[in-house]
Amino acid sequence: MFRRPQAQSPAAVAPAERVTSVLGPGINWKGNLRGSGGVRIEGAFEGDITLRGLVVIGETGRLVCQTLQANTVIVAGTVSGNITAEKLEIRGTGRVWGDVIVVALSTEEGAFLRGQVRMEEKIEIPADAEPPVP
User: Fold this and answer.
1) Residues of the chain by 3-state class (helix, strand, coil), percent to 5
2) Intra-chain end-to-end CA distance of the chain, in Å
3) pLDDT tens string 59-83
4) Model pTM?
5) 3-state secondary structure of 129
6) Counting beta carbons within 10 angstroms of the beta carbon of residue 5, is it exposed (0 to 12), middle (13 to 18) or buried (19 or more)?
7) Strand partners, 105
8) pLDDT digit string (tens) for 2-26?
């Protein structure tokens, strides 16, 4: 007769961010990356990234850019450029040279960051992150 309302778990409300594309070790890529989804970079990437989703720079990954914008960024390799993200995690092997604008920042022992950190209450990834519809 009386039912308790079912509360939705946070995992059910927001889809889990996951890696859908990989730039493997030994691959060198130059250009810009825009869209939505998750990408893991284990090789070398040169260019700007604007992504609604997850960006992982693996231990063997190197990114050189003006700007990296994504919902979540995990750095275990090296990034030379400015990062704007809701969540930024710099692992113990991670190296970042550039300014960061974040909502949440976490680092492990041994992580390296040379630049300024600005924390905001909310970050918006630009609408042009979505690829144009043909």
Assistant:
1) 5, 55, 40
2) 52
3) 999 999 999 999 999 999 999 999 9
4) 0.82
5) helix
6) exposed
7) 88
8) 555 555 444 433 444 788 889 999 9
